[in-house]
Design a protein that fits this description.
The complex is a heterodimer of chains A (399) and B (197).
Chain A (H helix, E strand, L loop, with lengths): L15 E10 L2 E7 L5 E4 L6 H9 L12 H4 L10 E8 L2 E10 L15 E6 L2 E3 L3 H6 L2 E4 L11 H13 L4 H21 L7 H35 L7 E6 L1 H8 L2 H14 L1 H7 L10 E6 L4 E2 L5 H23 L4 E4 L8 H14 L3 E5 L13 E6 L2 E4 L4
Parallel strand pairs in A: 3-13, 3-14, 8-12, 12-13
Antiparallel strand pairs in A: 1-2, 1-4, 4-5, 5-6, 6-7, 9-10, 10-11, 14-15
Helix pairs in contact in A: 4-5, 4-6, 5-6, 6-8, 6-10, 7-8, 10-11
Chain B lengths: L3 H10 L7 H13 L1 H18 L1 E2 L6 E2 L5 H4 L7 E5 L2 H10 L5 E4 L17 H9 L5 E4 L5 H13 L6 E4 L15 H9 L2 E2 L1
Helix pairs in contact in B: 1-2, 5-8
The chains are: A alpha/beta (399), B alpha/beta (197).
The complex binds zinc ion.
Chain lengths: 399, 197
Amino acid sequence: MIADPALAPVLSGSMAVTRLSLAEFRCYPRLRLDLDARPVVLTGANGAGKTNLLEALSFLAPGRGLRRARLAEVGRLGAADAPWAVAAVLTTPEGPAEIGTAHEPPSGPVSPDGEARDGKRVVQVDGKPSRGQAQLAKLVSVVWLTPDMDRLFADGASARRRFLDRLVYGFDPEHARRVSTYEHAMRERTRVLRTPGAPADPSWLVALEDRMAREGGAIAVARRLLADRLGRAIALADGPFPKAGLRAVGAVENWLGEGPALAAEDRLRAALAASRAHDAASGGAASGPHRSDLEVRHLERDRPAAMCSTGEQKALLLSIVLANARLRALERGAPPILLLDEVAAHLDADRRAALYADLIALGAQAWLTGTDASLFAPLAGKAQFFRVADATVNVSENP
Amino acid sequence: MSGSEIEQLVQLLAKLPGLGPRSARRAALHLLKRRENLLEPLARAIAAAAEKVRACSVCGNLDTRDPCLVCIDPRRDAETICVVESVADLWAIERTASFRGRYHVLGGVLSALDGIGPDDLNVGGLVKRIGEGGIREVILAMGATVDGQTTAHYVTDRLQGAGVVISRLAHGVPVGGELDYLDDGTLTAALKARRPF
Ligand SMILES: [Zn+2]
């Protein structure tokens, strides 16, 4: 439910894909969908190609998409020479936008670094090549929940960190650039530390660690800030979703709690300089925001999310995603595009109705998938329905 | 299909930036059809360049004389050195005609992942040039890429205590931008608005 009735009139704009075109993407040789800004319901059997559509949309955000696949894997089998591409026409609060993104396979001699072998993902905005994917975060915000994320609270911290980072992109588009810069500097530092032969050049390490400290401090600040604000937004919500308590935790986040941001950066710089020998052996960095975590508690039950039932964990995630959408609508004029893969089937009727009501009230273009079309009946007339079968997508008049 | 000379020409052309095998075949055919007014003059120009063009032993610029024209031009400010990644960047700044000092070409940027370390760049030459005296200001004009900025930081660290003012370009440039891609106006503005490192 919308927490504050005064929220609804604030929603001036919407963020929605009005045309989606795919080429050689997963099971789709070619596809074009024309849409309006309402929620989109995709129904069809398992394996029909519903999640592939969501994955295509997830490439409108920076990163590796919702399956975190290698770029070469995303291409259609049998389309050996043609790289995959996704294009979208969008409406955003800042005006219309056209985004194109495609796999550029590696060319020339293969570098010793594994990443380069997969080629790269190139991005075009309004027909012009864009340098790096971070630009995407300035234009569009995409947030997803998938069945793979059922284990988000049980698994390692990296998936939770990525989940939080994606939420941060929606408020602070610079965050995407910072994270990729930080990670690049860290990989460089690891390589410098582990290059056999002469001892590593200290000036080089100082330059890389300085970059890590400055970007790392800003990353931790942004994560802490959003976790706090989301926590408050959740506390204000009513409705059947459980209240989640959120906290970004880690060494840098703790230092930020103890003093000014610049002091936290200095401490990270000093910690990196002190852990060179250790990091050379371990191949990472002993401290930094790449080790941080998002701690989530079920507040009413007063226990960590990981100790709740699978159903409650899913509901906690939805509670966070919906609070994030409300906050973003309030601040940036539109909620993010939401990709909710197989979410409806795991909610009871009460929560399902609340979810639909929230999505409609927010004006969110939520993409919902499911095998059972009847679950989406309450959205009749309020959403666009498509049936997906054998890599074809057809409009269907009713759920 | 065709003799090995033509195949070799095509294969070499395909190594040029921006040319793939298909466009290399087109270019080769284009050259062969215009023997007198293109193929032969080009062959002579390439032979002359191969024979005469050298990297300047002072700054790393490419020229037919050593030191290069920029280094020996008495109207240029010998107290200011602009440090660039590549000759392409040097030429890009020269096109703007807004910088009247001299240059130092590093020959790349630090990239551990690509196997490029300090020893692969001409940093030692820069330190030596400055040690010889007469330099007042060093402008670091590396691209806004992570590796470009790491290199700028590295050079600053190596010049610590050398008694020169170090400044860097005020990039209004998208992140990951490289100098050679900037239009002349942006580059001029970036040079004018340089700030202390
Ligand atoms: Zn010279």
